[in-house]
Amino acid sequence: MKKIVAFAGFSLLAVGAFAQTNLQVFYDFGEDRKHVTTTLEMFKGDDWGSTFFFVDYDYPDKDARDLDFRGMQGSYFEIARALNFWQESSLGALSAHVEFNAGAGFSNWLFGAEYFLHNDDFSNTFTFELMYKTFSYDDASKLPLQFTFVWGMQNLFGVEGLKFSGFADVWGEKHYAWADLDKCENSLTFISEPQLWYNVGSLFNCPNFNVGCEVELSNNFAGYKGFKCNPCLGVKWDF
Questions:
Q1: Labelling 79: which of 20, 30, 100, 167 has CA 20 to 30 A away?
Q2: pLDDT 10s digits, 173-196
Q3: Would you give the end-to-end CA distance of the chain in angstroms?
Q4: Among 151, 61, 158, which Cα is nearest to 115's?
C-alpha cells in the first residue's frame, strides 16, 4: 500500500484542501500473504511545495516457521518532498523531488523531478516522476533510475464518491529471490497498486468512511521472481 494519495500539492491547494491524513486497513488475499496490512498516509501542501509520507505494517498470523504469530511483522516507510518556489510561474507544474524510503534490511534515497497534469476542475490528476535512485547495498543497479506515475480520478463514471487512484514504479536493480538467495540477477522491477474507493459513509452522514479494494501487481519485487498479483479488500478513514 504505497503512495496512494494521488494528488500533487498543487491540486490540493487549488481546490482549497491544505492537508489530509488517512488510515487504510486491508486484508491481503495474495498467495503467501493472507494477512492484514495497515497504512497511515499524510499529505500537506505549502507555499514551498508539498510533503507526503506513509508507513505500512503487516500483521501475519504465521511466522517463517509456519507457527502462530501475533503482532507486527514487516514494515515499510516512505517520505517525499516536492520543492516548488515558482508555483505561480509558467513552470509551476514542474517540481524538484527528494524522497527517502526504507524497509527491513534496505533503504533508498531518490532525487529528481516531478511534473503534474490535471483537468480543469482537478478531479482527474496525473503526476510523472523521474528520479536517480541510490541503494543501501553495493552495485545494486547498472541503471539507477526510477520512473513513477501517480494518478487520481474523482467521481468515476459520474458516480459521486467513487474514486480510482494508484501508482506505478519501474526501476532496475540486482534482484535476489527468496527461492535462490545465492543467485543475483539484473532485472527490471515493477510494482503498481491501483485502488478503487467508494465513499459509502456519505450515505449515512459519515463522509470520512470509505470501502474499497486494491490489487498489487508486481514483477521481480520483494524477493519474488516474476509476476505476482495480490488482491486486497479494505476500509479507509479520512481524518
A1: 30
A2: 876 665 555 566 667 899 999 999
A3: 18
A4: 151
Q: Are 173 and 190 in contact (CB under 8 A)?
A: no
Burial 110-119 (b: 16+ CB within 10 A, else e): bebebebebe
Phi, psi of 203 (to 5 degrees): -80, -20
**Which pLDDT tens digit goes with each residue over 53-91?**
999 999 987 655 566 667 777 799 999 999 999 988 999
Of 158, 163, 129, 161, nearest in space to 5 by CA: 163
Q: Give the β-pairing of 75-83 and 35-46.
A: unpaired
CA atoms within 13 A on the CB side of 181: 2
Whether residue 135 contacts residue 151, with contact meaning beta carbons closer than 8 Å, is answered with no
Q: Report d(CA 199, CA 207) in Å as an integer.
A: 7
8 and 96 in contact (C-beta within 8 Å)?
Answer: no
The grid coordinates listed for 207 are: 463522509
| Per-residue burial over 145-176, b = 16 or more CB atoms within 10 Å of its CB, e = otherwise | ebebebbbbbebeeeebbbbbbbebebbbebb
User: What gap in Å lies between CA 58 and CA 76, rounded to an integer?
Assistant: 9
Longest dimension (CA), the chain: 59
Residue found under cell 496525473? 126
Query: Distance between CA 154 and CA 132 in Å, rounded?
Result: 31
